[in-house]
Amino acid sequence: MIQYSEKPFYLSNEQIKWVEQTYGNMTFEEKIGQLFCPIVFTKEKKSS
Predict the structure, then answer these.
(1) What is the CA radius of gyration of the chain?
(2) Do 16 and 5 touch, CB atoms closer than 8 A?
(3) What is the Cα–Cα distance from 11 to 20, expressed in whole angstroms?
């Protein structure tokens, strides 16, 4: 089981409830789609 309140997530009980409800309402296809969502981090600052 994922420990959402611990490293690296540190979610509150309210946030954990939202995650579990959202995941529970997702279709199988939506869950599979989440496997292919790239997470991109950059050190560049946004230009204004």
Answers:
(1) 14
(2) yes
(3) 12
Question: Which of 5, 8, 32 lies closest to 20 in space, CA to CA?
Answer: 5
Residue bearing the bigger pLDDT, 25 or 39: 25
Helix (H, G, I), strand (E, B) or coil at 16: helix
List phi, psi (to 5°) of 15: -65, -40
pTM for this prediction? 0.64
Query: Which residues touch 12 (CB under 8 Å, ≥6 apart)?
Result: 5
Calculate the CA 43 to chain-centre distance. 21
pLDDT of residue 48: 61
> Chain-centre distance of CA 39, in angstroms?
10
